[in-house]
Amino acid sequence: MKLYTAAISPNCRKVEAVLHQLGLFDDVEVHRLNLMAGEHRTDEVKTANPNMKVPTLIVGDMNLWESNPTMIYLCDRAGAEEFCPSDPKSRFELLRWMFWEVRHYNKALSAILWETVAKAMMDLGAPDQNTIDREMEEFRRFAAVLNEQLASRDFILGDTLTVADFAVGAYSTLAMLPQSRIPLDEYPNVKAWYLRLENVPAWAATAPEAAAEAAE
After folding, report:
1. Tell me, what's the pLDDT at 211?
2. Which of 19, 51, 108, 197 is deepest in the core (most CB within 10 A)?
3. How would residue 212 be classed by pLDDT, with cut points 50, 70 and 90?
């Protein structure tokens, strides 16, 4: 297997964490690209993924891109039934939360974190307060849904970690940075879940170093 990935990227982290969770990471040829230098815009990457985006995973004659379906493919291939259950009801729940994070919760969260964290890391100027204000309304709307879901369970689908937690929790480290402005204290169940997730070995192994440096 060959993985095109990048530091700090939450979507790349999701796939790398699943590889660690499944015990497959050491079997992967990792190409960690510098996105700021445009290393993802090469013919080699374009051949694997016409969008020229990461993560992109090559498995045999398959080019896998888009992080959530890539994670499910890896889990099914490894027979990781507990981590990624395949019975119809559980699979629907997994897919529902994984689509939800892309379209709602993490969409808002990523827009805020771009303004409050990423721009400063990359020296791209001051944050746009109008964007932050607009996306913060969306974040609060969907964080309330997640907070309720986690009111009586340790993880999204119950008391057992699943691939849905890696998907929805993609921005955990960045969201907990003080400069992120994410009001996690308003959503104590989400905050506690983030902290639990950070202590999962496979998730901890993929923590972005640049984020840790930014927090110092």
Report:
1. 55
2. 19
3. very low
Alpha-helical (H) ranges within the chain are 10-21, 43-48, 67-78, 88-100, 106-113, 119-122, 129-149, 163-168, 172-175, 188-198, 201-204, 209-215
How far is Cα 169 from Cα 190, in angstroms, rounded to an integer?
9
Q: Which of 27, 143, 20 is nearest to 83 (CA)?
A: 20
pLDDT digits (tens, 9 = 90+) for 160-205: 999 999 999 999 999 999 999 999 999 999 999 999 999 999 999 9
Alpha-carbon distance of 45 to 152, in angstroms, equals: 43
171 closest CA partner among 122, 126, 129, 112: 112
Average pLDDT, stretch 78-102? 97
